[in-house]
Design goal:
The structure is a single chain. It is built from 2 helices and 4 strands. The N and C termini lie far apart (50 Å). It is an alpha+beta fold and 124 residues long. It has a single domain (2-98), classed as Ribosome hibernation promotion factor-like (Double Stranded RNA Binding Domain), CATH 3.30.160. A 4-stranded mixed sheet has the order 1-2-3-4, covered by helices on one side. The radius of gyration is 20 Å and the shape is elongated. Helix 1 packs parallel to helix 2 (80-122).
Length: 124
């Protein structure tokens, strides 16, 4: 999966980049193989503000375009890595649901075609 990373409020470090590489690669199992070329993921991580009394608040936002459909998830947490993990878990659930719906639609269509063909050849 191709992805593009934007950061706001702090620079993108190699540690964060490696962490995102590792985590985003887990989403590949939820992508339908014939749509793999058309998948693009936009990642935005950043600090929301610099003036919180209790510490920094980090935001992780993922926008995934797949097969003409877009999925967007966003979380805000005190730790950047926790925010990334939670957002990726939500994205995985949405992609899993999309893949399941799409596969069941394909199976239903195949079953319908099969019943039509059986009807054509069974009537002779």
């Amino acid at each position: 999966m191709k992805y593009n990373v934007n950061t706001t409020g702090f620079p993108l470090t190699p540690a964060i980049s490696d962490y995102l590489d590792k985590k985003i690669s887990h989403l590949d199992k939820f992508i339908i193989p014939n749509l793999e070329e058309s998948v693009m993921c936009y990642v935005e991580v950043g600090k929301t503000t610099n003036h919180h009394k209790t510490g920094d608040l980090f935001r992780a936002e993922f926008t995934i375009h797949i097969g003409g459909k877009s999925f967007r998830v966003s979380t805000e947490r005190e730790d950047l890595y926790i925010a990334i993990d939670e957002a990726l878990n939500e994205a995985a659930e949405e992609l899993k649901s999309f893949k399941g719906k799409r596969n069941s639609l394909i199976k239903r269509g195949g079953a319908k075609i099969k019943s039509i063909i059986k009807g054509l050849y069974g009537s002779n």
